[in-house]
Amino acid sequence: MKNIKRYILPVAGMALLTAAGCNKLDQDPYGSSIVESQYYTNLQQCNTSTQVAYRYIDYSSWWEIMNWRYLSGEAASDNAWIGNTYQPHVTYDAVGHYTIDPGNDRCEAQWVDLYKSIGRFNSTIAGIQRAPIDDSYKKQFIAELKFLRAWCYFDLVRNWGGVPLVLAIYPPDKHFSRSTTKEVYTQLINDLTEGAGILPKKSAWPASDRFRASRGAALTLLAKIYLYMEDWAKAETTAKTVIDEGDYDLENNFSALWAYTYRNGIESVFEIQNGSSQVPALPYNEFQRVLNSAGDGGWGYYSVTSDLENAYKSEGDSIRLQWTINRHGLPVAGDPNNLSFDGRPYPAANSSKSARFSRKHYIPKAQRPANGLPALNDKILRFADVLLIHAEACAMQNKTGDALTSLKRVRNRVMLTTNMALSGWDLINAVRKERRLELAFEGDRLYDIRRWKDQSGKPVINSIMGPNGSFVKYNTQTGTDAWEKNNPNELQTKGVNFNPDIHLLWPIPASQIILSENAVVQNPGYSQ
User: What is the DSSP string of 269-323?
Assistant: First the structure.
């Protein structure tokens, strides 16, 4: 294959984009015939359309996608409260407190937007497939688009289980039934395996193109999928390939990852670009405002639980504690002069369920844009996750030495010692705890505790949530955090409604079942 990176052309503009999908997941994208017949006529147009597609991995805005990603991944777990108690947010509470039903509008928005993204990627693939360009370029562009599509399907399958597989453009009267979870994962494995053989390494891209999908990104997502499928051997070998190829490394300091200026560094495997000079940046990301304390101009959503803070303290993990959690009355890590608060310590608001907020999404006042629209990149895949995937896969196969090597590498960075005598379930649980401490507030926690099994073979979330769950008992019986206890506007019993026969998946949105003319069926335990 030719050296494609030498011929990558700049984005010419967004006037002739592939068309958006609509609320109906199988509807023909608007104007697709115009796009395919009149636009994809040369290399520059195909490259432009591929680069623009990166803008649509979160199709419309932070509101539909980003809120759900952190809501379901963090606030439905033991890491976060919904947090904001001065505004009504019934549909958010329903997710975090497990009272969700098929009419939940946030659940619907996530489903619809993911399929809109998939529709755009499919229409762009169709246009490029027909384009009169060299086959090597065509394969690369399509591999990039299939990676983006795979990420969207990964989000769909881990939230809803088996979902309709829509892999091309179809007429609006075509309805799809649900594929099985295994069928969805098999499709993603095929697409990512193919892409890993086509895409260049991240280091092979010019600096201005390092936001694009790479061989390492395809392999990392593939390894993560194998982890979810409990194919430990393939998860191990795939993650080890990423490690051994040497295209990524840990940043020397954990703090470097959360600097406002950090974009696509050595630890970054894949990021969503927000408000940067990179192409194609989203104009901004409001999520930093959503997550910040109302005492500092934010909206106060997704405040951190004292349970998560205690997890850092019990491990003696002071570095990741201060760079993961901003705490009321204490200085902010990386902002020693407290410029955000005129020299005062970090302020939570009385309206917050907790006095803790995400440092990973915080921007010091001196670095906040004048237009008030902050834009940190969203770190979707990073190298520390690769090491922990490898450690977990090895631990599950009793490959103790290999698991400890990867685990130790992550812990060394934050100056924590590793007990090299760990084995069996002690090692497995150590790796699991490390995932929580390393990746908190990056959207993985709920999915981890759903997929992990305890020694009796039951999902770990069963022992955390529900009437007898450790998290519920901590908040209602043994917890002493005054801020959480004194704000009853968010129920202290969060998680008590969890039902393991229902809540390992979310409900299929009722509107989508109707639009499919009942080709799509509901998940067990929810009303049709």
Answer: EEEE-BSSSSTT-BS--THHHHHS-GGGTS---SPBPHHHHHHHHHHT-HHHHHH
Q: What's the pLDDT tens digit per position in 310-360?
A: 999 999 999 999 999 999 999 899 886 666 666 678 999 999 999 999 999
* 233 residue type, one letter: A
Q: Contact 98/88 with Cβ under 8 angstroms? A: no
Per domain, the residue ranges of the chain are: 4-199, 287-374
Alpha-carbon gap, residue 378 to 442, rounded angstroms: 9
Give the domain 4-199 fold: 1.25.40
Write the pLDDT tens digit of every residue in 251-305. 999 999 999 889 899 999 999 887 654 455 554 556 778 888 999 888 899 999 9
Angle at alpha carbon of residue 137, lines to 131 and 141, rounded to 5°: 80
Q: Where are the alpha helices (DSSP H) in 420-496?
A: 424-439, 445-451, 461-464, 470-473, 482-485
pTM of the complete model? 0.91
Contact assessment for residue 36 and residue 128, using Cβ atoms and an 8 Å cutoff: no
Residues in the chain: 528
Helices (H), 356-399: 383-396
